[in-house]
Amino acid sequence: MSKAGKILAVGGLFVASVIGFAALNNSKSTSGYEEGGYTSQVSTLRFSMSSNNQHPIFDGAEKFKEIVEKYTELKVDIYPSAQLGDDRAAIEMLQLGTLDVSIPSTGPLANFYPEYNVFDLPFMLSSEQVADQVLRSEFGDQMLEMLSSRGLVGLDFWENGFRHLTNSRRSVQSIEDVRGLKIRTMESPLHLDAWRAMGATPTPMAFNELFTALQQGTVDGQENPYPNIALNNLYEVQGSMTDTGHVYTPLALIFSEATWNKLSRQDKRVIRQAAIEAGDYQREVNRQVNLDSLSTIEQNMEVVTLTPDARKAFQDATASVVDKYESIIGADVIEAFREEIRKAEAELAQP
Length: 351
Description:
The chain is of the alpha/beta class. The protein has 15 helices and eleven strands.
């Protein structure tokens, strides 16, 4: 069982373990968190995120802040809505040591770690439950550990969710309807290739620039999970949504290695466990907000449900993208990902 899996397996005992830190120390004092005479050399963690403060990602960040501040002397300041920069800028700042914590999608991370493209291969993960098991597996742990090669520390995967297509030009009910649409994507070559394979004209763009681009007609549409669509009022500038579910996007909770190395071992323990606990909470909130967001979307936009044949046509159109990225990602990484998916699907299928 993976390290993350072991924490999940004990369930509610997580809180008890953190409380145990406090009980042993008797109070939240600096001396209580010393270990071998070493205390954290930072007092405040700056936490950057692209989503706004209405998004479930912010709720997860708030939970993380609550736990860390309760059981350490550290303070966590959260900066939503890309106040300190978009995901790519935040990753670069973490590597430089000018930012402490962030929660980017895996797409922007793939610009720095090619193996992370595996998460954005189209039509790989079939459900949220499968995604949970895959991300909290030995495979997920290895992907997080990989981040240390370029100045980052990976703590856990949180959830953005399945991505769906919206646009302002026409109802998309088949792969043919995608042809010629100008679609905003994340700044990821794989996403660009996937949408080209589907017949669209993709345009990479930071999320905080998206609403204006849709409003001005710079792009016709975009693709995002339900909460991103509803909570950012994209239905005001989009007329139709199609439940493509073409990619499940995880988020990676990451630290600057420079900051991490300044933390005491005790604070690191609390932070690692806080990442898991806050991740569980964030997924729970995200899935409820998913349902609420879909209801909002249905009230304000046309929602198209693809037929099985139409969905297969989308899958067939993007099959070549998986082949193209095998040499970039690594055949071994793709196979390990697929094997973990197969294991999860088999376990979930058992009565």
